Structures are given as C-alpha cells and as structure tokens.
Description:
The protein folds into two domains: 12-107, Lipocalin (Beta Barrel), CATH 2.40.128; 115-234. By secondary structure, it is mainly β. Helices cover 5% and strands 46% of the residues. The model is unreliable at 238-265 (pLDDT under 50).
Amino acid sequence: MFGRKYSKKLDGFWEEGYHYYVEIRGGRLTVRGYDRKVALETEISYDAKALDRGERTVIKLEDNVLSRTAAGEPFTVIRELAYESGELKLLYYYTIMGETLYTLKKVDNGPFDHILIRDNEFLKSLQGRWYGVRSSGLTGSELVIRGNNIVFFGAGAEPFHVVSYAYDKDRVYLVPANLTDGNFSGFSAVEVLPGMLTARMIVFDARVPLSVFMRKEDVGKIPVPGDADSPMVNTMIRRPVDVQTDAAPGLMGFEPLGKKKDPEE
C-alpha cells in the first residue's frame, strides 16, 4: 500500500512544454491546459520513500479523467503518472488519437515563465512563402509569414510568436501569440527545423501525415521526414477507455486504427 507521506521533490510546478502543466502540493495534484483552465484536481498517493531514494515511482490518482463526452463518458484520461529520474512521465490517452507519453520537467516560478520568446532571432529568416512538400514533390499547399502573422492556404492571417522552452532551448516553435491556444488553422504548434517548417493537422477522427513546408529552392535538396509520406489513419476506436477507478463503457461507433467498419454491424 502507498503511504500518505509526501516528498518535497514533487511539490511545485511541472511543465511539458505546450499541452499541460501540473502543480503538486502535498497530496493534491492540479492539471491545467494551456488555456489556463483546470482540467483535473485530484488527491494523489505514492511511495514517498521509494521516490526519495530515486526509484521510479508510480503516482496513484484518485481521479484520472481529464475530459468527458457530452454523454459523460471519459474522453481524455491519464493512464499513468510516474516520477522517473527527476521527471514526471504522464501517459495520456485520447480516445481519437491513442496514447501519448509526455515528459514534464520541474520549473521555477509560476506556469508559463519558462517560455522564451525568440522573435528577434528568427522572424527575419522566416518571412515569405513556404511550400508544402512530400518526398514526391510539391503538394500544392503553402503558408506565408508576414511579420508576426502566418497565413495558411491563403486564408486568415493569425498572429504568432517564435518560442523555445527553457529546458529545451534547441527546439523552436511557432505558436499562437497569446501562448495559450492549442493550435491555429487546424495545425498544432509549427516546429522550425533546418530548412523546413513541420506541423500536424488536427482532424477529429484521423491521424494526419506530417505537413512539411520548404522554400521552393530547397525542394529536392533537403530530405523530407518519413512521416510526411505516411497514410492518413482512422483513429476512431471501439475498445473501452481505461480508467483507474472503474471500467468505463466504450464510445459506440468507434473502430480500431486502420480497421474498416463492417457495414453489417
């Protein structure tokens, strides 16, 4: 059984970078999204002695449901939260995207203070037109950057900042200017890589191939990441959501990844 003793190692703010941040105070955990809204508040328990010895320690959550459907069924859940090598490992499950493992690092001060705005370093080099590309060539899509605004597919300029995170300064992203929205124009945060920009399109029931944008003169010269050529994958599922407290009914009408639904069902 877990004891009710708590480790000071856990108290404070833990951040993943863009999706969630966690606050732990004694035996209580609060999870917020990057809209700053509370997604979950719950009591926790764990083996504090093992954690203080540096061992991997699973943190038991009294409640692990981050969001529910309109019918009240679990929609996003934390399948496991564990302390490991000075970090928190959060295994997140989204019914239409599957599992994602987030690594959260402890940060000083309050939430979002770790965000480094790097407009002065990168904006000049990012200006102009970027073309969608796969290994087979141009896709016909494009994005345009003018000042601190980005335009996808010729519609709707949206303000952004160029950012990195204090604990991962080498990775650079374009994110909405208010630093809280999860995406713009259906894209998740756009990552700035040597010679290219990459992003994921957010679609309700599909995992979409990586979108890659390059300058026209670099097409064919810079290798395109393999994920850009992956097929679109159906993410609707029928299996039950794993909830720590109790089994939950599945979301009816969902099917496993890649499996075509039988019309007789």
